[in-house]
Amino acid sequence: MVTVCTRAVTRCISIFFMEFQAHFGADYSSTAWIHSLVDCSTMLFAPVGSLVGNRWSCRVAVMSGGVLSSCGLLLSSFSTSLELLYISMGVLTGLGFALSYTPTVALVGCYFQQRKALAYGIAMSGSGIGTFVLASVVQLLIELYSWRGALLILSAFVANLCVCGALLRPITVQKEEKTCDTELTVKPSNQSKHSLLPSAKLSAPPSLPLENPTPRRRCFSSCFLSSEEYRFLKTPDFLGLAASFLFLASGCSLPFVYLVPYALSVGVDHQHAAFLMSILGVINIVGNVTFGWLTDRRCLKPHRLSCYVLSVVLEGLCCLFTPLLRSFTLLVPFAILYGYFDGAYVALIPVVTSDIIGGPYLSSALGVVYFLHAIPYLISPPIVGWLVDITESYTSTFLLSGAALLASALIVSTVAGIRRCKQLTTKRRLLPLSLTDQSNCLSKKGVHRDVAS
After folding, report:
1. Could you tell me the residue ranges of all domains in the chain?
2. Sign of CA dihedral 92, 345, 53, 45
3. pTM of the full predicted structure?
């Protein structure tokens, strides 16, 4: 429900695009700033959402966000200029969405470990469900009550974030400490370092994953405010992942902003254009759940990063072929394919981040990941709107979107390749050492056995 009230509502703001343009007499570039500011603020303040959630609780963060975002949409319904919409809808509503969205996504990762991808797929499907339902409803509300009345009703709907926040239940610290204590028994202590059995797995020495359990315990602490929380920022893997997210954010938001205007420009009526957004939404649900379920299978679980790259590549190719589609019949397959692959990679973003960074830092890492989306979300739609004003065509919109998505996939593939090479090198280096340690342990056990006899 949080993803319905945040990400789905953000997507449906593009349906107001033509209404704002007609009412205020603005061009494409000026009007596009509204949608881009909402997305930018949501991602820009994502670390604030993580901070509030870690310092106090997810409930405080989500309920505060519900109040702010609802007030932002309420004030937007009374706006008399685009500048006021920039502040009320763009900044205030975006800040509320940031406080609600990031802690909720992180909480899913704290609850589920074994089938994390499926859990995220179901949770993130709220975005698709909301888009499917709200797209046609918002268009109907605009026709019945004008855009002001529609925003007023959306304000009341978004206030349900307060109810969602009240129902969130963070895991207690005591349960997590028990889990940490159980895992610590696996790691050999300094006093019993020679008790390694011959059957121990050489590919994953116990000291590696359990070297520092303290941050994992802090994941649920109410006072998780130290430099340890952001130590992942120094890792090369995360830096490469961050660069790829910049390109990803530059390309993924453009079709949601310009699909409805593009459909209208090629002769599709308003109701059918809004229905394209509904198709995107319902297929997005399928992508979230099915891709999450598939990547939790034993055969695909080690290859989640490759599945993520594949979904981004296919989404980029869909965008490159969009300028050739100039009717509602041809745009439906685009909506289906783009919606599916968008849902697929969105469900895998937290999973891939967790696999690379580690569960203890997931909340802070997601805050930084979503923060990286802020600048592309801010500048991409207005820049493309400026190109539309100059060229009087949407061709550049979808070509830039496809190129950015392909660049993102290329960077992630490079990072994955380097990471794989490092893992193989480390494994080869540790293997002889592990065999030597086991031989020494066995020989010492033999000596002790002789002495005892």
Report:
1. 2-170+234-424
2. negative
3. 0.63
